[in-house]
Design brief:
This protein is mainly alpha-helical and 151 residues long. Helix content is 30%, strand content 0%.
């Protein structure tokens, strides 16, 4: 009977080696300047002509940045939260925010069970309503088009 290839003794993958000698110390380097920290040249534009040199794009997805004034077209987190708490049994908050698929699921759970399983979407909607009111970042702070909810 022959041996299976996995049963044959193999050579060790890692062989013993001598320890590496310590690295020599690095010479001191001048501080690095970034394009965002450089002062603008004459005329106030960068060499490429793309605007001021001290411009930085501000993409900070971890911090909430609510607008100071009302912006038309944005959904309200208070409305979404109250719809979730009061009418979560029919998924009204999901329809309001544009999540129509989950809204239909919540509505169908209530309708197909003829109201006997009303507590399932009611608890689900109540928890989501509280999350829309409390959470300021992540999934619970945006609508279906990824626009931030406003107060």
């Amino acid at each position: 009977m022959t041996e299976h290839p996995s049963e044959k003794p193999t050579e060790p993958i890692y062989q013993e080696t001598k320890p590496l000698p310590p690295r020599p110390p690095k010479p001191p380097q001048p501080p690095r300047e970034t394009r965002a920290l450089q002062t603008p040249e004459a005329g106030g534009a960068s060499p490429a002509g793309r605007g001021p040199a001290n411009y930085q794009q501000q993409y900070d997805y971890d911090r909430p940045t609510p607008p100071l004034e009302h912006v038309p077209g944005r959904k309200s987190r208070i409305t979404a939260g109250l719809l979730g708490i009061l009418l979560g049994v029919v998924g009204a908050h999901r329809f309001y925010l544009g999540y129509k698929g989950l809204g239909w699921v919540m509505l169908l759970i209530t309708a197909v069970s003829l109201g006997n399983a009303w507590f399932v979407p009611a608890i689900w909607g109540g928890i989501e309503g509280i999350l829309y009111l409390v959470m300021r970042k992540g999934y619970w702070s945006v609508d279906s088009k990824h626009k931030p909810l406003q107060w």
